[in-house]
Structures are given as structure tokens and as C-alpha cells.
Amino acid sequence: MDQISNIQVVPCSSSNYLKPFRVHYSQNGTKKSWDFMRTHDSVSVLIFNTTSHCFILVKQFRPAVYMCEWEKHTPQSPEDKVKEGEEKEESEESHGDPPTAAAGVTYELCAGLVDKPDLSLEEIARQEILEECGYDVPVSKLRKITSYRSGVGVTGSKQTMFYAEVSDDNCVGEGGGKSQEGELIEVVKVPLPESMNFAFDESLPKTMGVLFSFMWFHSNMAPKYKISTNV
């Protein structure tokens, strides 16, 4: 996760995960168009370990986040670098030192795509908890928090968020994702008393799901664990 090299920006002619479209429509008599991306819906899970009173997050390298930082170190955008299918490596025309891999590493909730039509959302969430974090959680122990639309300007896909309480007894593996699929995931524990400071620490890149779920926990579960909600 610490070393990123041989960066290449190339045209994306096809993808199993993203499909770009342009829709033309009329709204109140005005003709409009909008570009959007069709993607899978997803699930995410806020995991709380009742043995150690900590949240279980995952940490992984996200190329899209890294490229946003990478662009700050080169005068040309990725689109300018790719012309007529020509591939150019970042090292050829970089200006200044490129960002370290840490620039693309984010803290996230355990999550996964809804791409298994034979499984329920709860069953998909259970699989992701086991694969990414190493905890075996019965489906009956998953509590739905809410669902919402993410990336509404680009994708509009739906994410359903769950809450799961685990204990050390539920830990049956190290997690880390499926290495055969190229996943490289680090399991991170955030102590409950430090969680809100963690959530609002801008030096730690994280998803909105982390902020929202931590706030939800402090609003709904804090009395159960007799904790202060003061940051």
C-alpha cells in the first residue's frame, strides 16, 4: 500500500463497474442534457467492537483520490496526457515530486458492491464484514441505519448503511479483502472516546460515511454505553 509507481493514464474503453451515458431531456420546456455514470448500488457497515469499545474501519488506497492529488503536481490534466489512445507514464512529464501513496489512502466503512442478485443486502454486508474485517456476524445481528443516494451529480447510485456490533469472539480471521482480486485492505481500530476527534480531523482522509455513521452512533447508541457526546 505504501509504494505506488508506473502510473499510466489511459482511455477507459470499457468497464465492468462504470458505464458513461448522456441523457437528453426537457424540463419545463427547456432542453437539457446531462452526463452520468451507471454504477452498482452498494452497502456499508458501521462496525462496533463491544469487547474493546472501538470502531472497526478499513483503510485502502483509492486511485481516484490519488489522481486528484497527482494532478496538482503536473501542469497537464490526465485528459491532455491521453491523445488518440497514446499512453504516457507520469514519470515522463512530472513536475516536482509526485505525492506519496498516502495521498490516496482513505479511511472508510467496511463496504461492497451490490452485484450478487441471489443475495439480500444483509447477506452481502455480512460477506463484506467477513472478507474485509475478519468478523463472522449473523445476518440477524445487522441493523439497517438508512439508505441514501451517493454521487448524485455523477452516478445517483444507492448505498444502504448497516450497523453491526461484534466482539472479539466473532473474529475468525485477519480480514484484508480478497488478495486474489487485488484487494489490499488494512483493518483499523478507532477507540470510542477518540472517534469524534478522528471524524473531524481533516488530516485523515475519510469518506462521508465515516462522519455520518459516527454521528449517528453518538446520537443513538451513546446512552447505551454511557459515553459523553462532547467533542
From TrEMBL:
Region (Disordered): 75-101
InterPro entries referenced in this protein's UniProt entry, alphabetically: NDP_pyrophosphatase, NUDIX_hydrolase-like_dom_sf, NUDIX_hydrolase_dom
Compositional bias per record (Basic and acidic residues), positions renumbered to this chain: 75-86
Keywords for this protein: Hydrolase
Regions annotated as coiled coil: none
This protein's record includes keyword Hydrolase: yes
Domain of life of the native organism: Eukaryota
PROSITE patterns in alphabetical order: NUDIX
Cofactor: Mg(2+)
UniProt keyword annotation of Zinc present: no
Nudix hydrolase domain sequence ranges: 38-212
SUPFAM superfamilies per record: Nudix
NCBIfam families from the UniProt entry: nudix-type nucleoside diphosphatase, YffH/AdpP family
Similarity comment: family membership: Belongs to the Nudix hydrolase family.
Identification of the protein by name: NUD14 pyrophosphatase
Classification lineage: Eukaryota, Metazoa, Chordata, Craniata, Vertebrata
Gene from which this protein is expressed: Nudt14_1
